[in-house]
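Pasting two entries for a bug report.
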Amino acid sequence: MGARETVEVTGHLMDSGILSRVLDDIRDFGGDYAIEQLDVGHDAHDPSSARIAVEAADDALLQRLLMRLQTRGVNQVSPSDAVLATAERDGVLPDGFYATTNLATRVQLEGVWHDVENPEMDCGLVVDNTSGSPRVRTVPLSDVRAGMRVVVGAAGVRVSVPDRETGVPSGSGAACAGRPQTELVRQVADTMRQVRADGQRLLWVAGPGVVHAGAVPAMVVLVRAGWVDVLFSGNALATYDIEAALHSAARNADVSTQGHEHGHEHRVRAVNTIRRAGSIEDAVAEGVLTSGLMHALVTCGSRFVLVGSVRDDGPLPDVHTDVVEGQRAMRAEIGDVGHCLMLATHLYAAATGAILPATVPVVCVDNDPAMVARLADRGTNLARGIVTDVGLFLEQLALELVPDYRRT
């Protein structure tokens, strides 16, 4: 074969199945391998390590294979300096660019290792020397500008896989369906307390199911108690929440969500009311919106990012209708996030998982156990799930975190 590199990987290689997946990746790329060294941990908590010689038909294929292996935490044994190329057009990375993971990443330049500032999957690595010393950061395709210096190939790049047992409910599988829910909720609450003590922020990602499940009162209590620093969602959650706050009939009879004749009228009127005020914040300031989740977020100074879709009503004036701008707004809020809760949303959970660093623990609450598996398949390393009704989960979480909370 035409190109060869020696790589190494450390961790719980056998019981996690990582080694098997690494070897499958090599075969899937048409490559070959020879295991030069394998040290298996003696006890259950001892890590194992492997050194593997990898071969491919040519260097271009080998570089792509090495990038793929790095999603498993596999690194080259003797990396050289990273190779740089110049982007020639806005929005286009050079051929052979290093496709990033969301793992903690370092890049070697002139013999010195530099941390990548904002690990994110499916981006390019840009080296910036404008400040005098090199800075390396991830840049999505939409933000690439001509003249940027971009890492190409896998040379000079190392990744680190986080501890999978940190900050998430423990369990044998990704979705904890058979564990006592009270125990799982308590684990989440304990992690949130630790994150807050460490000075990091708590990110929530929620879908309209929070409103449909009657969970807004519990969520409002958590917001007012300071447990929600930033919320990612779409037009639907905010609209349903505001509709319920402005139209008691819609809240009590669930007119808009059960398909009653002309039930959509309440939703559209709610959107129109906010559009007339100018924004959700303006509606709160004018006394138009006096209750609900969005009201609590505004009055408590919590941040929120709403990103729209083609099916939105209105949408609300606060909603980003340009999805690229919405992604940028989301990225701007994740720098100091230490924990993420995803509640009953497939679309926004996947979108958030794609931009979060792998070191941020994620707990996904959904009645669909496949949701967590999808996140893990996309590279959200610390994703764990609680398979339950989101309303019940939020009630229990409020009881754990807010001492004087009582079920309503």
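Entry 2 (this is the one that rendered wrong in the viewer):
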Amino acid sequence: MGTKHSRLTSLALRTLLSFFAVLFILQPATASTYTPPPTQNEADFQKWVTDFKKQALKQGISQKTLNIAFKDVHLNLRVLELDRRQPEFAQTFWQYFNRAVTSWRIVKGKFFLQKYHSELSEVTKKYGVPERFLVAFWGMETNFGGYTGNTPIIESLATLSYDDRRSNFFTKELISALEILDQGNVTVDEMKGSWAGAMGQCQFMPSNYLKYAVDGDNSGTKDLWNSLPDVFNSMGNFLEKLGWQRGENWGREVALPKGFDLTLADGKTKHPLAYWQKLGIKLADGRALPNEVMDAALVLPYDYRGPAFLVYDNYFVIKRWNNSDSYALAVAHLADRLVGRPGLTKTQPKDDRSLSHQQIIELQDRLKRDHYDIRVLDGIIGGKTRQAVRNYQINNNLPPDGYPSYRMLEILRKNQGE
């Protein structure tokens, strides 16, 4: 009995410890609870730096640059915290959009569009990217250069390279940052940016700086912190290389007819405008779609009550800058507003509410309980979760918009009797 009781007690203890371990992992990290793994300490980090310098020398980085770059570099625990932190809440489209496309940003963007018209028009002629888009990206990335980040780039990238989570990616970026210093484009003290290594007024990662940065003012350096000609030309060059189509728009807000098949709004599948026109889609103001030979995909960034967009090739170029529909739509719409085009015809519903990390897991769990294809309860809204939501909606006679929302969570709770 004693042995059996001891085994049962041990099993119960292990089960309890496993439960609390999982519970801890699912909690979003905060400044007050974050503790780095025990192996990550300053002494170990400095050993890593010593080994890294040897490899950097072999890759052509000068000893002088290495000495200067790593003079005061230490393990940055704040960078590790930010890299590991899971967002506590997933912003809805409206929450993101309304913070991105503000009256202040529109007014400021119009001012800069006029102030720098001469410089911007030259970039447009050279790369084919309209002025309003250059200003919109500039506004979205750093509030028109108002905030470029104050984290030392070498220290942040060294910390993230030392960490095992994404070491290969950040080690390549660190080498690129050192190459930039080797070229004399910027000093170590000037090289500051985001905690993840994005730099300058257009927030290029170091590898993109090396590929796309342009000396727009012919000063002999590529200064994305202080030279607007360099900033504008670099953005134009980047977008052109990503595939920007000259003379084409990004897309338009549209109006869907009553009873429209929302499963067609996958944001990926392209059809000729004539195809969408036959399905009854019009421009948001009621006019017919343009009679142009262009392919477009239908994007529904919110639920069935939100705006709908037909988007062209340049929309997907914007997404190559930042692979987010909310970001791409904010940049594109901001660009339109800078030249006097109207705001969206839809407005934020009163019941718009973000989902917490735990609520997303609950949504996924409830879908899985009803035998929808949810393989991992990870609290991340991805393609699998959206498709499961859409399938649930189809089977329950709901508008199949595929949008995981707090409203959908409440519907699941009610239908499952909880």
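Dev reply: Rendering is fixed now. As a check, the viewer should reflect this: Residues 1-38 have pLDDT under 50 and may be disordered.
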